[in-house]
Amino acid sequence: LSALILTLLAAPLSKIRPKHGRYAKLIPAILLYITYVNFLFLAKAWLKSGVLSPVLGMWWVHGLMLMIAVFLIGQQIGWKNVFHNNCKVKL
Questions:
Q1: How far apart are alpha carbons 69 and 74 in whole angstroms?
Q2: Cβ atoms of 73 and 8 closer than 8 Å
Q3: For residue range 2-15, what is the model confidence (pLDDT) as tens digits?
Q4: Which site in 3, 26, 53, 77 is 20 to 30 Å from 17, CA atoms measured?
Q5: Separation of alpha carbons 55 and 9, rounded Å
Q6: Helix (H), strand (E) at residue 9
Q7: How many Å apart are CA 26 and CA 13, to the nearest integer?
């Protein structure tokens, strides 16, 4: 699951502007990965210690990163393009 989410995160983080450096988005990508892995380890520790409910489990970490990935993809292609063609409501 995390491999799929990280793949979704890689797409918007790989696009750079021509005037920026080649590695302009490398630091944000590394920070997102480190944050994701740390939250996974934290959720696992919370599950073992009983702080976190087993029903919630580690899904909240994947959900959070999936929302970040969707936000970054939507920001890259433009929210207007995402909703313009798909939400035609006729009254």
A1: 8
A2: yes
A3: 899 999 888 888 87
A4: 3
A5: 26
A6: helix 2-14
A7: 8
